[in-house]
């Protein structure tokens, strides 16, 4: 292949002799003079570098033509990609093909973007929410959010984040990022009153999980998330009472849960389980399914729930999961042991209302009335959502007792 | 797409790495550049230690003359040890390449990927 090294001037002459011919040929074939010209220039740079190092190949003209053609194709692809991106990122959310939307979703959730940007971009570019709607759902000033979205779009285009569904070794962590954003979107709408704009966010998140599963039907964690969201959504109508206060699970009217939605979630969860690749979303769905299965709050299989929490801890050892496990522990082993567990989390979750609300609940079951009142008061101060505040207000007024 | 990749490290942490280990990785780095030769565009350099750096800074007061000072432009512990220009299809390809950078075995090492402004595209 190599027929020796040439001095630079000889190389340059050789390249010049071929370059004009190749550019003309390429322009005719791809019909774009600028791209052909740039591709040939790139090929020349590569040729000089490689030939200086490895010697001139037997057919320098053929080498250059091939290199130029490859680069022209690359540039054409990049331009098409740019146009697709611009179209999809345009202010009118386009109803693209489902696989385009999935690719867009993966681009919006790319790890090169900040987590809060991923969520905002997904809601804007994939779900088509307005900047104002997103800002209200996350209690962020609209200008801040608009800027976050603009910067995110700019980064996708200028940093070369590709509009493709990843494959191979990257897929598990990239999919996890996408599922996280979908779950966060759901949580933003979870406590919203029925038919309010934020409640639509929860429905949109379910739609998104559905889209992911339709395109990636063999990803058990994607199926697990869809099952989880359907199970949570099946109780959307009973989560708040007429005054907008949060209704705890054990006080909800189970006959009003959406049975068809629950049945669908269970079929999806069974499909996920058939892969024998458990994960945190499948386990959380299994936990939600335990509640859906119980004919009454009293008949809940708390031992199974506790066992599932122990499994979940292997995938997600966060203090939030440990707090939820303590609630199940109270039902299985009694409030005293559970209180011990909750107090072990006091430092990590001190700013989280649910730690104090759970503590208050356990203390009142132990008839430690004054301490229960203090804990409920602290929970009340920390609660951020109106529905939580209302529930705690009632607790403070009755069971928590007055000093 | 063309990107500059900037190799940074923490010289204070580098000192803790045994000499033989440093040399072994240096050899791996040569192999890395060889293996990935097709992804590099012209340019790039390994830099002399930061103790050799000189910085020209804008004057503190408006209208003043720029001042010349000893040392790097930034007080940061992380320092740029070199840079390369790569030409790869997209950011994922750049990340995949950078992930295999042999020095990432050492604490404090980081590689920044920055797209190059390409005029007329």
Core attributes:
heterodimer, A: 403 residues, mainly alpha, Serine Threonine Protein Phosphatase 5, Tetratricopeptide repeat, 18 helices, B: 121 residues, alpha+beta, four-stranded antiparallel sheet, 3 helices
Can you describe this structure?
The complex is a heterodimer of chains A (403) and B (121). Chain A is mainly α and 403 residues long. Among the domains of chain A are: 1-96; 306-403, Alpha Horseshoe (Serine Threonine Protein Phosphatase 5, Tetratricopeptide repeat), CATH 1.25.40.10. Chain A has 18 helices and no strands. With 121 residues, chain B is of the alpha+beta class. Chain B contains three helices and six strands, in the order E-H-H-E-E-E-E-H-E. Chain B has helices at residues 11-14, 19-35, 91-99, and strands at residues 2-9, 45-46, 54-57, 67-70, 79-87, 110-115. In chain B, the strands form two sheets. Chain B has a four-stranded antiparallel β-sheet. A two-stranded antiparallel sheet of chain B has the order 3-4. The longest helix of chain B has 17 residues, at 19-35. Chain B starts with a strand and ends in a 6-residue tail after the last strand. The chains are: A mainly alpha (403), B alpha+beta (121). The A-B interface holds A 34, 42, 45, 49, 74, 77-78, 110, 112, 158-162, 164, 166, 170 and B 1, 3, 41-42, 87, 89-92, 94-96, 113, 115, 120-121.
């Amino acid at each position: 292949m190599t027929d020796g090294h040439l001095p630079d001037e000889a190389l340059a002459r050789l390249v010049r002799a071929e370059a004009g011919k190749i550019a003309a040929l390429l322009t005719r074939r791809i019909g774009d003079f600028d791209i052909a010209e740039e591709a040939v220039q790139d090929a020349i740079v590569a040729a000089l570098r490689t030939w200086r190092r490895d010697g001139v190949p037997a057919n320098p003209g053929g080498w250059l033509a091939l290199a130029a053609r490859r680069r022209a194709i690359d540039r054409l692809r990049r331009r098409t990609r740019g146009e697709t991106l611009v179209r999809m990122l345009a202010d009118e959310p386009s109803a693209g093909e489902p696989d385009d939307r999935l690719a867009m979703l993966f681009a919006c959730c790319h790890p090169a973007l900040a987590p809060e940007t991923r969520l905002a971009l997904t809601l804007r570019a994939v779900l088509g929410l307005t900047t104002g709607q997103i800002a209200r759902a996350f209690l962020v000033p609209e200008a801040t959010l608009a800027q976050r979205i603009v910067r995110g779009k700019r980064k996708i285009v200028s940093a070369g984040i590709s509009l493709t569904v990843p494959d191979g070794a990257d897929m598990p962590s990239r999919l996890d990022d996408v599922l996280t954003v979908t779950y966060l979107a759901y949580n933003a709408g979870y406590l919203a009153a029925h038919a309010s704009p934020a409640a639509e966010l929860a429905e949109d998140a379910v739609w998104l999980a559905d889209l992911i599963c339709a395109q990636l039907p063999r990803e058990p964690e994607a199926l697990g998330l869809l099952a989880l969201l359907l199970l949570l959504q099946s109780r959307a109508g009973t989560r708040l009472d007429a005054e907008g206060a949060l209704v705890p699970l054990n006080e909800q009217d189970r006959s009003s849960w959406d049975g068809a939605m629950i049945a669908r979630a269970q079929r999806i969860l069974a499909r996920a389980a058939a892969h024998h690749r458990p994960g945190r979303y499948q386990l959380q769905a299994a936990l939600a399914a335990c509640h859906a299965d119980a004919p009454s709050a009293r008949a809940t299989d708390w031992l199974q729930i506790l066992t599932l929490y122990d499994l979940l801890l292997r995938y997600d050892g966060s203090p939030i999961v440990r707090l939820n496990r303590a609630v199940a522990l109270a039902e299985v082993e009694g409030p005293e042991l559970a209180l011990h567990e909750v107090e072990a989390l006091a430092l990590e979750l001190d700013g989280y209302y649910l730690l104090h609300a759970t503590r208050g609940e356990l203390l009142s079951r132990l008839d430690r009335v004054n301490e229960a009142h203090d804990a409920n008061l602290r929970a009340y101060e920390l609660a951020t959502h109106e529905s939580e505040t209302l529930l705690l207000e009632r607790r403070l007024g009755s069971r928590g007792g007055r000093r | 797409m063309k990107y500059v990749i900037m190799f940074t490290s923490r010289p204070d942490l580098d000192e803790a790495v045994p000499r033989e280990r440093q040399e072994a990785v240096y050899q791996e780095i040569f192999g890395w550049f060889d293996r990935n030769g097709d992804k590099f565009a012209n340019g790039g350099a390994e830099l002399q230690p930061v103790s050799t750096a000189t910085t020209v800074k804008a004057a503190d007061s408006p209208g003043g003359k720029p001042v010349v000072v000893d040392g790097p432009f930034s007080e940061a512990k992380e320092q740029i040890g070199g840079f390369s220009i790569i030409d790869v299809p997209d950011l994922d390809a750049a990340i995949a390449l950078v992930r295999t950078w042999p020095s990432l075995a050492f604490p404090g090492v980081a590689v920044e990927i920055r797209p190059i402004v390409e005029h007329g595209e």
